User: Fold alpha-1,2-Mannosidase from Westerdykella ornata.
Amino acid sequence: MLRYRRYRVFVAFAVIALFALYRFGAPSASWQDTASSQPQPISNWWPRPQLPHETKKLDLEIPIAKVSQTLRRPPPVVPASSPIDRLPIEQASPDEAAERPTITSAPTSSEPIRWKKQTEHFPVPSTALIQLPTGKPIAIPRIQHAFKPESAAEKADREEKLEVIRNVFKRSWDGYREYAWLQDELSPTSGRFRNPFAGWGATLVDALDTLWIMGLREEFDEAAKAVDKIDFTTTPRNDIPLFETTIRYLGGLLAAYDISGGQYKNLLHKAVELAEVLMSAFDTPNRMPETYYHWKPNYPSAPRRAGTSAVLAEIGSLSLEFTRLSQLTGDQKYYDAVARITDNLEEFQNKTRLPGMWPVLVDISGCKLVDHSAPQPVVETSSVIQEPESSTAAEAQSTATLEVLLSPNGKEYKPLDLPDPVVLVAGTSPSEPAQPPKALRRRQLGNVQAIYEEDGPAPTPIGPHCEDQPFLSAAGSGDEEYTLGGMSDSTYEYLPKEWLLLGGLVDKYRAMYESSADVIRKNLIFRPMVPDEADVLFSGKLHVPPPGENKPRLEAEYAHLTCFAGGMFGMGAKVYDRPEDLEIAKKLTEGCVWSYDMTATGIMPEAFISTPCQDIHDCKWNETRYWNEIDPNAQERIDSYKLAMERYEKEMISASAWYASQLAAMTATPTPSASNAVVEVAATATSGVTGADASQNPAARKRQLDVEPHSNSRPNTVPSFQGSLDRKVIIEDGDPILLGQQDEALQPATPVQSSSDEPQPEFDAETSTPTMPEFPYVYSPLPPTSHEDLVKNRIEQDRLPKGVVAFPARNYILRPEAIESVWYMYRITGSPHWREAGWRMFLAIESATATTFGNSAIDDVTKKDPVLRDEMESFWLAETLKYFYLLFSEESVVSLDEWVLNTEAHPFKRPK
Assistant:
C-alpha cells in the first residue's frame, strides 16, 4: 500500500522538476547559448538567474556616513628575519615562468630602509690618520720567468685552448645575464638566481675585470654601465659581511677601473660609495671593524664594539682593497683603517701559543672588563654601548631609549647604564671650543679612549668599564687552531701582496711574512704517504693546547682552500730572495695536482685526510700503516671483546649457581606423566554468572573445567581451563593444551579467572605443580669485525683512493685555489709542465660541472657521475676561469711584475 508520508520527498522533487521544465523551456536563447556568448570565469561558469533591480534609490539618513573619514591603511607586513639573513632569494626557472600566470603584487607605500651616514662616535682626527708611505718604490726582484718566444705550433695550440676557455666563460656569463642579471649568483641548472651576499650583483661586479682580460669589450661596457643601478644603501640582509663585500665588490670595482685604464670613472665613484658604507663598520672604540656590519640606522646610531671572536681572515684580508682605494682617491682614512689592524696583528704575532702565526679566532674587542663597584654585563660580539645625553643633534641620536638589539649570532644586548659624558679635548674656558690633539699617546684608541694632548685631562671611559686590551686569542682554555686553510688563509697571503702594493716601503709586512713562513714550514707542512711515493707536500692544521698541557697535534687534513699556499710561497721566494721556499712552493702545488688526479672525476674535494710521513725526505709506502690509519681502533675492539667475554663467563657462572639453588629449594620432582596423555574433561557451571543473560543464553555462560587425569596421570592437579564442552585437555611435555574441533589448530588453554566471591577449591601444596624458575638473561657479546674486513669495506664504501684516510668534505664548489697556484708556478718557473697539469684540471672540471646555463658545484668528486647542486659561485667567473685563461695567455697579460692580485683574483696596478 502506497503511503504518502513515505514518498512525500519524491513527490516534492517531481513538482519542482515540472516547474523548472515549464519555466526554462520557453523558445528563447538557451542558457548554453547565453553562457557561451561571453567568456565566463572557470570558477563561476554555472548560469545565474536574473535578479530584479531596485529602480528607486535607497536613501538612508546615517549621520556617521556624512562625516569625512581619513583612509587608514594597515602597516606593511615585514617578514621576520634573523640578524644574519643568509636565505637566498630565488626566481622561477624559464620553463616554470612560462607556465605560471603573471601575478602583479599590490604596490606598497613603504620605502625600503636605507643606510644613512651617522655621526661617528669614535672619530679619528685628520691629523691622527696613518698616512700612506711616500717616496719612490724600492727595487723589487723580478717575479716572472724570462720567457722565450714560442713557436707557431705552440701558439696555435695555446690560442685554441684559450678559445675553449673563453667559450665556457661566455656560456656562464650569458646564463647569468639572461636569468640572474644584477643578482648575486646564477643557479646554472634551473635558470634561477640566488642572493647569498647583499643582492648587489656579486657576479656582475666580480667578473668585470675577467670580461676585459678576455677581450669581451661589449659585455664589459654593458656591465660597467649596469653598475650604476646597484644601490649600496639598502639590502635585504640585516647585516653586511665585511670581508666578502670587500674582496668581491670593492675589489672588483677597483680592479675593473685599473684594468680598463681608468676609462670608466663611474666604477671608482661606486667604489667610494660602497666604501663609505663599509667604513661605518670601523666606528668602534679601538677602530677595529665589526665583521658583520648591522647597517640599518637604528644599529649604527648606538656605539658598538668589535667582536670577541672574530675570524682571522675576515680582519686580516682587507688591506689590499682599502689601500688601493686610498692610492686612487688620495683619502688617507681608508689606509688608516687597515693599517691599525696591521699594527695589532704585528703586536700579537709573537705572543700567541705558536709565535709567528695567529689562531683562527681572535678577540679584537679591545675591552678587558673591569669591576667598578658594580657588576657589569659581559659584552660579546658587536656589543652595544650607550652614549651620554647631550643637547647636540649628533649625541641625541644615542640618548634615546635603546631597544634590545641582536648581534650577528642572535644574542641579545640590552642598553647599558649611561656613563658620564666623553670629553675629548676641552678648551681652557667655556667659550673656547675643543681643539684637535697635537700628539697622540697611541694610535690604538682602546676603550673609547678620547684623543687628547699629552698634558691634557684623562679621558672618561664609556661603559662597560674597560681597560685597554690588545688582540687576544678567543680560544680561552681550549685548543687553538693554526692553519693556512679556511678562516686564516688570505691573512698570510696579503702580507707579501700588501708589501708589493706599497712599493716595499713598509717593511713590517715583509718581517711579518717571513716570520710566519718559517713557522708554517716547521709546524704545518708535511709530506703525505702516497702509493707512488710522489714527492709532494701538504699543509695541515695544528691544534695547540694551553701551556703545560699536551703537545701540539697535527691534523693531516688537506683542504682545497689551502692550495693557494703554493703561489704564496713562490711569490715570497722571489721577492724576498728565499730560494728554498721556491722548492716548497713547487711541492705544495704538486700536492694539489696529485689531489686532482686521485679522484674518479679528476677534481680535488673540499677536504680529505691523509697519512703524514715520519720523514719528509724519505717516505716509503707502508700498507700496514695506511690500514692502521683507516682503522686505528682495531686492537681496542679486540681488547674490548675479550673483556666482554670475561664478564659474560662470570655472569654465566653466577646465573647457573643461582638457578641450581632455586631448583634445590623446590620439592623433589614427581614421576612425570606420559607425553600426550589424554584427560577427560567434566564441565560444571561456572559460579558467579547470574542474571537474565546467563539463564537465557546457556552458551554464553562460563564453564569451570575440572581436569581429571585419564591414564598415566601425574599425582599433581592440572589448573582449570576455559573451553567448550566438546574439548579435551592433553598434557604435552608437561603443558596443558586444549583440543578443539578437528578443524581447529592446537592452542594453549586459557585459565579461567573467576569473578565470583565463592570460595575456590584449595590446592594441596603436595599435589600442585610448582613454578619453575626462569634462567637469568645473560647476553653474549658479538665477535668484532676483523681489521681486514673493516678496512676493505670502508675503502670500497667510501671510495677511498690509496693514500686517503677519509673525506670530511667530498664536494667541489668550483674553487680556484689549485689552478691559482698552478698559474703562479708557470709564471714563476716557465715550465710547460704546469700548463699540461692545468689543462688536465680544466677538462675534468668542465666535464663534471657543465650545465645548460653555466657550470655547477657538484656533490661528490669520488663519483663517476656526481650530482649537480645548482650553485655557481661568483668566483667561478672572477677567479677560476680567469686563472685558466691567464695560464694560456701571453705572459705579458697581467704580469706579476706589474700587477698584484687580491684573494678574489682582482688585479691592482703596482706603483712604479
